[in-house]
């Protein structure tokens, strides 16, 4: 991580980007742009003609069970555990939850996943979901679908989750730590958007057009804090496109609908799906199309490198 962070600082320096370490917020519209406050390790007031907001997203909390990052964990807390919990509970079997559950299972935890939907990974390609379920079963994840979670209480001994299973029977899950992974929400906390009238939608995302322009001239927003899939490459491409628009070099148009299609058969469970994306690109460029509904894992160069190819070939 340090190497990565230092690499980015090096790139900033090399490309004459000044980095202020702190939290940024809007102060007001100023002559020639916007006044911004930086508070934290650096305390500064800046005026910028163009502002790009890329503040990401936060884990969604479950009503009645706020994250304390000690016993009830978001994905942040789940990555900071100092020891392997013997019994780990997980609410939500989305990609991030499964990634966390799978990591801790492989480190030795007994992992139970409680999912409200009756189908596993309902939002992804059916064939991938089927293959993924097999892989997680093999790892030893105990996945319960179609549950209804009730009261969550915690004490020094651990966390207790009352729930009703798919048959309608009342159950209690006792665990040492509980990860709640029920989605993410755009993060505009502390940005002081009201000061400048930056428009948010009903989900709290910054409203942007197809070019990532907000309702304010010179203010752009990209990534998880705006509409669209919360994916790293989507955020990155939007950032690049906005930089190009500001410089007006190339007016590149990001096709969100095709981005969605291209990433449909992604395999991001515990591995970087950038590799998948790139390999799908090269498949497309090579005239091979991933067949919708089939597992395209063997296409990923990174998986080959790690000798972790499973599933069946899905290209023509
Ligand atoms: C556990 C996990 C696994 C994931 N796995 C994948 C995956 O396999 N593939 C994939 O494509 N995507 C994955 N994602 C999603 C991906 O991480 C996000 O879509 C991507 O990071 C969004 O980029 P971003 O630039 O919008 O926000 P972020 O990467 O979240 O960056 C936002 C940054 O802004 C900073 N910030 C916030 N508010 C302020 C402020 N007021 N002032 C200054 N700085 C501020 C934050 O500290 C943070 O550094 C995963 C996400 C999680 C949580």
Architecture overview:
The protein is an alpha/beta fold and 316 residues long. It is 27% helix and 23% strand. Bound molecules: flavin-adenine dinucleotide (FAD). The site of flavin-adenine dinucleotide (FAD) has 23 residues, from strand 1, helix 3 and helix 5.
- Give the overall silhouette: elongated
Question: Into which percent range does the helicity of residues fall?
Answer: 25-40%
What structural class results from the helix and strand content?
Answer: alpha/beta
Under the CATH scheme, the architecture of the domain at 2-57 and 185-261 is 3-Layer(bba) Sandwich
Bound molecules: flavin-adenine dinucleotide
Note the gap between the termini.
Answer: 38 Å
Enter the CATH topology name of the domain at 2-57 and 185-261: FAD/NAD(P)-binding domain
Structure annotation, total helices: 8
Q: Describe the sheet with the most strands.
A: 5 strands, parallel
Radius of gyration: 22 Å
Secondary-structure element string: HEEEEEEHEHEHEEEEEEEHHHH
What's the oligomerization state? single chain
What do the pLDDT scores average to? 85
Fraction in beta strands:
15-25%
Order of the strands making up the biggest sheet:
6-13-7-8-9
Poorly predicted residue ranges: 260-305, 311-316
The name of the CATH superfamily of the domain at 2-57 and 185-261 reads FAD/NAD(P)-binding domain
Task: Give structural attributes.
single chain; 316 residues; alpha/beta; FAD/NAD(P)-binding domain; five-stranded parallel β-sheet; 8 helices; 27% helix; 23% strand; disordered C terminus; binds flavin-adenine dinucleotide
């Amino acid at each position: 991580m340090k190497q990565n962070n230092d690499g980015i600082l090096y790139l900033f320096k090399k490309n004459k980007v000044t980095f202020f370490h702190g939290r940024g917020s809007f102060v007001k519209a100023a002559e020639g742009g916007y006044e911004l406050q930086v508070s934290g390790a650096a305390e500064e007031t800046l005026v910028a003609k163009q502002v790009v907001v890329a503040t990401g997203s936060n884990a969604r909390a479950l009503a009645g069970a706020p994250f304390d990052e000690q016993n009830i964990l978001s994905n942040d807390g789940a990555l900071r555990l100092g020891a392997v919990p013997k019994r780990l509970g997980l609410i939500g079997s989305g990609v991030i939850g499964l990634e966390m559950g799978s990591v801790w299972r492989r480190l030795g935890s007994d992992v139970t996943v409680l999912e409200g939907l009756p189908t596993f990974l309902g939002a992804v390609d059916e064939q991938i979901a089927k293959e993924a379920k097999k892989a997680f079963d093999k790892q030893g994840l105990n996945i319960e679908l179609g549950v209804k979670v009730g009261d969550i209480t915690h004490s020094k001994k651990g966390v207790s989750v009352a729930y009703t299973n798919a048959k309608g029977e009342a159950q209690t899950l006792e665990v040492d730590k509980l990860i709640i992974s029920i989605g993410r929400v755009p993060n505009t906390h502390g940005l002081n958007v009201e000061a400048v009238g930056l428009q948010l939608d009903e989900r709290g995302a910054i409203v942007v057009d197809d070019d990532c322009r907000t309702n304010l001239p010179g203010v752009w927003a990209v990534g998880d804090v705006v509409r669209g899939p919360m994916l790293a490459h989507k955020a990155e491409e939007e950032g690049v496109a906005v930089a190009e628009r500001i410089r007006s070099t190339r007016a590149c148009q990001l096709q969100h609908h095709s981005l969605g299609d291209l990433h449909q058969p992604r395999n991001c469970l515990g591995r970087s799906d950038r590799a998948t994306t790139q390999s799908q690109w090269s498949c497309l460029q090579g005239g091979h199309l991933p067949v919708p509904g089939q597992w395209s894992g063997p296409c990923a160069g990174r998986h080959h490198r790690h000798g972790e190819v499973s599933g069946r070939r899905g290209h023509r």
